[in-house]
Amino acid sequence: MTPALEAVDLARSYQLEGVSVDALRGVSLRIDQGEFVAIIGPSGSGKSTLMHLLGCLDRPTSGALRVNGTEISALTDTALASLRNRTIGFVFQSFHLLGRTSALDNVALPLVYRGVGKVERRARARRALEAVGLGHRLDHRPSQMSGGEQQRVAIARALVGEPSVLLADEPTGNLDTRNGDEVMAILDRLNADSGVAIVLVTHEPEVAAHARRQIHVRDGLIELDTANRQGASAGGVAPEDHREEGDG
Ligand SMILES: Nc1ncnc2c1ncn2[C@@H]1O[C@H](COP(=O)(O)OP(=O)(O)OP(=O)(O)O)[C@@H](O)[C@H]1O
């Protein structure tokens, strides 16, 4: 099966006041369809940079990235945005919802950019909200919801377009333990039921423990890439080592 994401020797440097910062120094990895992966590592190690590259929100300084088999380097920005919209969903620590817009319309929004008609948009948004247990909150605005509910709206929005991959950057970072646990239980279930691959960045070992594979990043490189047999949906294929040949 075509991998959901395949990175080969991915590097990203930033220019900061004439000085080059090598945030990522050559990362190769393959994320298969349906995987559940946690990316962990110290502050400043390059986790967010890697997530931005994998999510095509940024382009690498060098190296190659294939998204569902499509190599992105030759794509125009418009073509890349379209590929991203169709294949990748994002969840952020701070939810990023439109504050004055109902949950239903927040979730339906990505489908506007795909040209889906209003009736179908709303029907799909409703189903996505029901899938995260918010079928009774369709008309609530974010300010009328708890943090955990807002993050569930953000998850519904990320998944309404049925992407291959969900990228989540510290999805429980702004939540208390109970809401964080609830969000992780939803991610476990969505991964098991819909087969969406999940890649999440976290500082919390309890959150990383949900994943079946843990990638440790340090100083812009993959330090360790291990299977976690205790991961949430154990019973799937436990990957031994998904780094590309020549890595490390
Ligand atoms: N826009 C930028 N301009 C310059 N340097 C940057 C930029 N973004 C990140 N960096 C640097 O790149 C390195 C990696 O940053 P990154 O945000 O990817 O780390 P991280 O592992 O996600 O950290 P944290 O856990 O604190 O969020 C750091 O040294 C950071 O200072």
UniProtKB/TrEMBL annotation:
UniProt signal peptide: none
Coiled coil location: none
A family per Pfam: ABC_tran
Chain ranges of the ABC transporter domain: 5-244
Keywords on record: ATP-binding, Nucleotide-binding, Transport
Keyword Nucleotide-binding: yes
Compositional bias segments (type: Basic and acidic residues): 239-248
Annotated InterPro entries: AAA+_ATPase, ABC_transporter-like_ATP-bd, ABC_transporter-like_CS, ABC_transpr_LolD-like, MacB-like_ATP-bd, P-loop_NTPase
Region (Disordered): 227-248
Keyword ATP-binding assigned: yes
UniProt-listed SUPFAM superfamilies: P-loop containing nucleoside triphosphate hydrolases
GO molecular function, one term: ATP binding
The name this protein goes by in its record: ABC transporter ATP-binding protein
